[in-house]
Amino acid sequence: MSAPQRIIASFNQSLPRSPSGAFLFLRLVSPYRTLARSLSVAFPPAFAINRLAMPRNQRKTREQKWKEKPRPETSSPVSVVPSTVVAEAVTSKLRGLSITECSGDSRTAIPVSQAGGFHTHNQNQTSGQKAIWKPRSYGTAGGAISLEAENVSARAGEIQANHSQASASEANSQSLSKLFRAGLEGFSVDNSTYTRAQVRATFYPKFENEKSDQEIRIRMIEMVSRGLATLEVSLKHSGSLFMYAGNEGGAYAKNSFGNIYTAVGVFVLGRMFQEAWGSVAAKKQAEFNEFLEKSHMCISMELVTAVLGDHGQRPREDYVVVTAVTELGKGKPKFYSTPEIIAFCRRWRLPTNHVWLFSSRKSAASFFATYDALCEEGTATPVCRALDEVADVSVPGSKDHITAQGEILEGLVARIVSRESAKHMEEVLEEFPVTPNDRANLDLGPSLREICAANRSDEKQQIKALLNGIGPSFCPNLSDWLGNEAGDSHSRNADRSVVSKFLQSQPADYSTMKLQEMIRLMREKRYPAAFKCYHNFHKIDSISNDNLFYKMVIHVHSDSTFRRYQRDMRYNPGLWPLYRGFFVDINLFKANKERAAEFTNGRPNMIESTNENGSANENGSANSKDDLADEDANLMIKLKFLTYKLRTFLIRNGLSILFREGLPAYKTYYLRQMKIWGTSSGKQQQLSKMLDEWAAYIRRKCGNKQLSSSIYLSEAEPFLEQYAKRSVENQALIGSAGNLVQAENFLALVGVGRDEEGDLVAEREAVPPSPVPNARDSILKDEGLIVFFPGIPGCAKSALCKELLNVPGGLGDDRPIHSLMGDLIKGKYWPMVAEERKRKPYSIILADKNAPNEEVWRQIADMCRRTKASAVPVIPDSEGGYSNPFSLDALAVFMFRVLRRDNHPGNLDKASPNAGYVLLMFYHLYEGKSRQEFESELVERFGSLVKMPLLKTNRDPLPDSVKSVMEEGISLYKLHTSRHGRLESSKGTYAKEWVKWERQLRDTLINNAEYLNSIQVPFDFAVKQVLEQLRSIASGDYKAPSTEKRKFGSIVFAAISLPVAQIHDLLKTVSGRNPNVEAYLKDKDMESSLRKVHVTLAHKRSHGVTAVASYGVFVNREVPVYVTALLYNPKMAALETRLGSVDGEVINSKNEWPHVTLWTAEGVAPKEANSLPQLLSDGKADRVEIDPPVTICGPLEFF
What we know:
Region (Disordered): 54-81, 603-625
Strand order of the largest sheet: 22-21-28-23-24-27
Pfam families: tRNA_lig_CPD
Number of helices: 43
GO molecular function: ATP binding; RNA ligase (ATP) activity
Distance between the termini: 77 Å
Protein name: tRNA ligase phosphodiesterase domain-containing protein
Oligomer: single chain
Domain tRNA ligase phosphodiesterase: 1039-1181
Structural class: alpha+beta
């Protein structure tokens, strides 16, 4: 019995009967129309797919084409409706709303020819055309369809009583919900249980580069220069991630589906088809969706719109730009290369991005130099113009950023791709020329903004209006958005149950096995990620008690998860990548013996086949990885512009701090951000002045009511426009302002708690980097200080605090020192510290409590911001490992110390039966962070770091018995937490094992007490080292360790730096030979006034950005400079130079007269030295030749 038939059977007590005893089928009065399944359907005409626009597994021959399925014969009208048709009618009701809903509001209606639809076979057809199935009418309840429910012979189904309608609808919803719940609860996992999982939509995996940005740049240039790869650069449009897998596959945001974000995405994508294809849009929409479904593909796009909230600039148009095309058929997802994406998009007339290729060392180096020259002032026009000049290949996008979005450019994305990419791109551009749009003057109906403006009662109404407005090809039903119309949603308990049963079931294919492996690993290691499952309404016809279907959303909460998973992939290369925007269809089912045998017998062949054909580069094409190592294939760097960041990060993201905590906290926040970015000092001063004025303006205008971040540009843009008009300097700072698009009246209604990517529930709030004052700038004595301890019990923090309290003179100033011991505080500890800070604002507080995770660090950072304090983390010095900042040696010492304690205030001592388990719990709170990541994060948050010596460097290795018991404990802890979470060790499956291990731990550590005592540094030495570091921080002499973050300022000019000492020696030589020169230089004090010497090659203001950037290939290379003469007059002096060559290429200066400026009189700008040759010709300057010329070498640098 099918699912619809079972549901109908459940209604047997409520449906009325005819006099003959037969059930009457009630015609539920509804504005929604559904079409019976028995209507014969003809799909679009067959069309040839070029090899670059087809899935790779179908490119074996040039002649291969998609073929139209044979049409079934059109059935004649019948008087009696079969039970299957009745079942289908009920099922259609349960699916949700048909797109042919008549809401009574005709404002969103769009003609069929424009909205996209199908033709029925009984319509007249043009000779030679193949029919496309299509409803006769759109947006109305009229129109005759041969097999509608009203043709049921029992006209008693015409009962239209309101109470009957409501009862039946409620019964439908309740029955469906009951079916879902009963199916899951009654589904047990046994040997006959199998599961099949298939990726439905995904975006590129997020690879976290462990190298610094500078190292990545160097590596990229090196690979290009050696001919191993090509550097590809694309524009970053400012919007939200949107993925589309066809009208059956679904529409998705980054971590969600079925909401206003995906509804807007579907509408905009459909409108792109209408604009591109004009009168044949409906046909092409149907072909496109059929193609995606048959090929099992997904396209990812940047959704740029003014209706979903403000980014850096409100776009002038609502549009999408395709950023990825993915084949999801068999094996691992395969991502198209950029040339293949462009071929695919031109085949379907989809919007493409602007792309540049750099295939030589000179062009690649020039690109990075161009960005550095523009990073603080760049907008779309100068950036695109400059990249066009330095790139080897430039492919303009079909959506021009300047026209569609505006001048404010978010950034650029640079990545390494195949060395054949440039050649491939040229072939694509020749084979797929740009096709003009066929829109002509067609009326496409209401726009996105008009529909949103006309439907502002609630989000649900907007969703319906948008999906109805784009037509059936892109949205045949609303089930993904509205479910079964009963508001039934999958509870979190069900989520966990689905995932558990999925992992317990046997995989039916290789893809499922790899997805299980990924999810199992992430759960075992407790990575911060959620696996949210929902009913798959697309599979309602196939649901039974033994056949269940779900959609899974893999939602990664923290970028650290990608880093940690990446590390796991190095140790297990067979792992599939962890993707961004990750959606999986899951099928749980029972298999009979024959089918189970097929799965078992076919698995080895299937694995072998997939291994042969499934190797794909997740950042490019299937072939682009062949000549690149994994580490190099994933090299990518994002480069953002200050004109965008000042709007989004400094203004929008700072609103909550400004309104909640006031101007001082806001100032601390934006200064901290600018330091993290490495903003030049000049821009920092300009921005500080502008942001202070903005803060005063918006607080005065809004009072205590915080400006909404979704419409912040309504206030920020007019302010920036007026500010830019005051001076040229302000205009350069702002970049572009004005032409504000008013969005308040057409903003989409976003549910509470959603983020800008459309997450259904805001799992975690993104917290900006802590604006705690940087210790390198010095900690002011009129501020407080919090010393805290990111450590593990046994790290000696309490003993250290006691010593610091008794140190004569404290930290070298008059601030009092207080200690708050966590084990003696009742209630919440950190709020107690905050209260102590308020009572004693200028004191030094020793926070004697372990602070092991980011949540605590955020509390400390917020406390510092609110109470005008600085914070200093003190950590035990340990080598650490790749996945934990503490080594096994350190953990063993901590456990040894704890098990020697008596009468500990927190009851964690040798009398504690589970002391080892507690320390393992703390140890695993740091899991996933390497030592470098751990230290770098603390430095970035708090600006300083104090290390407490722990272990001797020349110690012997950890004894095997100690190492073994530690590793056994870690394995037992992982087993315990995997099954029981944070349940106490005395409870659960492994309670006996824990008792045995705790006893073994004590015995082992006691037997190795001599060793464990010998490897520790003396405690008094550790105290002395910590005290010296704290005093250095308090006095301002401390210099924080480098975290290898990118810190490039904006490039202004290129020059060759010369050693000052050699210039002084040359001047002495010339003076000794020429009395006039000696007399001239006598009163100039060149020793003290001449401290930096360079030969300017090009200046951004005088010669342009690309002129400066052209020297990028020679940066840091030694260049010989030949000094040929000295020119001088009473106002200035300079050395005339001739430049040498590097690798056989002569370095040419953009200045007509290459020189070194030595001295200028007061009030004379150094650039005036360029006029000395002309002054010499006019007899107003003297020249002393240096013969033979003196050669001085120096590096070429950017300034």
